[in-house]
What we know:
About 65% of the residues lie in helices and about 10% in strands. It contains three helices and two strands, in the order H-H-H-E-E. Helix 2 runs antiparallel to helix 3.
Amino acid sequence: MEKKEKEKESLEQMFGQLETVIEAMEKDDVSLEDSFELYNRGMTLLSRCGRAIDEVEKKVLVLDENGETHEF
């Protein structure tokens, strides 16, 4: 997947991928090597989710007492 495609992934898609990673890590037959790979994948996804959430928070508008909107 190209970088731009990864950036376009929705939070829901990334959370779904995180859930898949967690489920894979919880399996009894996962090797130590696979655990480390899954862990790294999960941490990368968490970081991307955090950045996406930060972007959304910056776009949230706050309504003041005068009925005017301002960026959060």
